[in-house]
Design goal:
The protein has seven helices and 13 strands. It is α+β, with helices and mostly antiparallel strands and about 280 residues long. The chain has one domain: B-lactam Antibiotic, Isopenicillin N Synthase, Chain (Jelly Rolls, Sandwich). Strands 1-9-6-11-4-3-2 form a seven-stranded antiparallel beta sheet. It has a four-stranded antiparallel beta sheet with strand order 5-10-7-8, with no helix packed on it. It is globular and about 60 Å long. The relative contact order is 0.18. The structure holds N-oxalylglycine (OGA) and nickel (II) ion. Nickel (II) ion (NI) binds near residues 151 and 153. It holds the Pfam family DIOX_N. It comes from Aegilops tauschii subsp. strangulata. Keywords: Dioxygenase, Iron, Metal-binding, Oxidoreductase.
Length: about 280
């Protein structure tokens, strides 16, 4: 399954701790302070929301999240929360470091596919970067709900910083078995998203994952999403389609994909299935 721990990521343990601490501090603010940021409109560049996709789902999930656009920083940081006071500085620093890490990983993935190191980065264009600070409160009936339902990430690559003390993330192995991805000291988790599956013509799979909740402890995670620029044209790289074969996926812009992802019905299968075949 395409979910991996990375240890030698070069981001200091101290910074990771600060990110987790300030994230938790944010969710501990009084509800009336946080309510100013509430929105369920997915296109907003900063918003506090709840569950997964409140406009589409019939069953809600046990999660609150703060979603931020993070690149270019100068454009978005002014609108970020200034309470807690250290939020902007700590999260900006982390965003820069995590972006560099993500770009390095995309380089390694390109090489791994037999492409030039900067191939995928070039295809994805000036990538956006989004962050979800996920807060899963203690849940009195954890077997009746999820923190996040089964999904794949619609973007290219996700780097996840997880609560070091509380488990919750699970990934689907071989389409059949849910495996816990428990926190490891100082490790980040990397999940491949739908766009790498499309570009690689299915050689890499975006990972099905979900988050479970528990009655004893709250849990925090910080997901950083590298996203193709909206106008990027995504489709299987010609070199990765076997001789005489048809590409599995058609070409589309990321803008088209992202809109489809958030507007489709959630009981549908993999969003990429809607982009198969020629066009
Ligand atoms: C996400 C996600 C998992 C987690 O934010 O897309 O999958 O463990 N988070 O919080
Ligand atoms: Ni996810």
């Amino acid at each position: 399954h395409s979910s991996h721990y990375i240890i030698n990521h070069g981001i200091s343990e101290e910074l990771l701790e600060k990110v987790m601490a300030v994230g938790l501090e944010f969710f501990r603010l009084p509800p009336e302070e946080k309510a100013k940021l509430y929105s369920d409109e997915p296109s907003k560049k900063i918003r506090l929301s709840t569950s997964f996709n409140v406009r589409k789902e019939t069953v809600h999930n046990w999660r609150d999240y703060l979603r931020l656009h993070c690149h270019p920083l100068e454009e978005f940081v002014p609108d970020w929360p200034s309470n807690p006071e250290t939020f902007k500085e700590i999260i900006s620093t982390y965003c820069c470091e995590v972006r560099l890490l993500g770009l390095r990983l995309l380089g390694a993935i390109s090489l791994g596919l037999g492409l030039e190191e900067d191939y995928i980065e070039n295809v994805l264009g000036e990538q956006e970067q989004h962050m979800a600070v996920n807060y899963y409160p203690r849940c009195p009936k954890p077997d009746l709900t999820y923190g996040l339902p089964k999904h794949t990430d619609p973007n290219a690559l996700t780097i996840l910083l997880m609560d070091p003390h509380v488990s919750g993330l699970q990934v689907l192995k071989d389409g059949a078995q849910w495996i816990a991805v428990d926190p490891r000291p100082n490790a980040l988790v990397v999940n491949l998203g739908d766009q790498l599956q499309a570009l690689s013509n299915g050689a890499y799979k975006s990972v099905w994952h979900r988050a479970v909740v528990n009655a004893a402890r709250e849990r925090l995670s910080v997901a950083s999403f590298l996203c193709p620029c909206n106008s990027a044209v995504i489709g299987p790289v010609a070199k990765l389609v076997g001789d005489g074969d048809e590409p599995v996926y058609r070409s589309y812009t990321y803008d088209e994909y992202y809109k489809k992802f958030w507007s489709r019905n959630l009981d549908q299968d993999h969003c990429l299935e809607l982009f198969t075949g020629q066009k």
